[in-house]
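Cross-check.
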Amino acid sequence: MENKSFAVLGLGKFGRSTVEELVRAGAEVMAVDNDEEKVKKISEIAAYAMQADVRDSEAMQELGLSNMDGVIVAMTGSLDASIMATIMAKEEGVPYVLAKAQDEVHERILKRVGADKVIIPERESAARVARNMISGNFLDFIELSERVRMVELSVKPEWMGYSLCELDLRKKYSLNVMAIRSEGELVTNIDPEEKLTADMTLLVTIDKKDLARLYT
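Predicted model, tokenized:
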């Protein structure tokens, strides 16, 4: 995660929560909003806090979005602002732009102008969005409580050919393997001596403070 950098454009409740989740996961985050007070508050959390109007092309160019691994367009209060931010982020060469929509019509527009993924916050939490941005290894992510997450993840390359007993994932990552999905079947009666393969996924529980370990 030390090489992952993201920009969050718009610091309403959803945008701020996304910044917090990304920072907690170990990412470097640039937080941007036109509201000076919101920028000031987020400066205590984000690596960079910038005041800018996303509808201003010059201001957007000065942000250096082309250096980001991904951008989250988190505002919905202004339709033209979210559309312009999405277009300009893609024009700057950002490889992955995730945009927030207020309804299905807005969702279709954002997809049309280039957003790689569009979410409606009522359907997806900030934590799930952060997971989507930072790790392709995570296939599913559920918040069981304020602290505990259940994650389904792909077997890492360095785990292949080793058993759970040999890897001792509980000690190294502070996670508990609840089940293994193999050939589409979920197996809960796990054989700790079975070698892990590329076509397997692991269903695990983990404290959110330890999630960053899984990104490295």
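The chain is about 30% helix and 25% strand. The CA atoms of residues 11 and 44 lie 13 Å apart. Passed to J.P. for a second look.
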